Amino acid sequence: VQLVESGGGLVQPGGSLRLSCEASGFTFRFYTMRWDRQAPGKGIERISSISPGGSATDYADSVKGRFTISRDNAKNTLYLQLNSLKTEDTAMYYCAKDEDRGQGTQVTVS
User: Per-residue pLDDT tens for 13-68?
Assistant: First the structure.
């Protein structure tokens, strides 16, 4: 399993970012995928998931209404659109499948 995230960066409060995760080493379209994050000094927070076909999504209350998860099974890629960013969204963001995570991409809101 290989998961490679990209798209993080420094953004002002209220701004937007789009994260991507390129997946390989498994049949992407068969699996529920997830975005997790870890803020400095805190534990891992599961923030969103999407069903294999993309028809069902779920969000943590902390991001509901601001973040949107999506996937392109033809490209083996998972996305997370982050809108209306807040300083408390600052964290390392990870693409995840089951217990596997990528190396993460840093999002800093300041």
Answer: 999 999 999 999 999 999 999 999 999 999 999 999 999 999 999 999 999 999 99
Neighbours of 99 (CB within 10 A): 6
Amino acid at 36: D
Centre a 10 Å sphere on the Cβ of residue 105 and count the other Cβ atoms it contains: 21
Residue with tokens 């994260």: 19
Q: Please state, in angstroms and as integers, the Cα–Cα distance from residue 85 to each residue in 33, 34, 42, 47, 48, following that order.
A: 22, 19, 19, 14, 16
Across the beta sheet with 77-82, the strand order is 2-6, 17-24, 77-82, 67-72
CB burial readout 56-74, b (16+ within 10 A) else e: eeebeeebeeebbbebeee
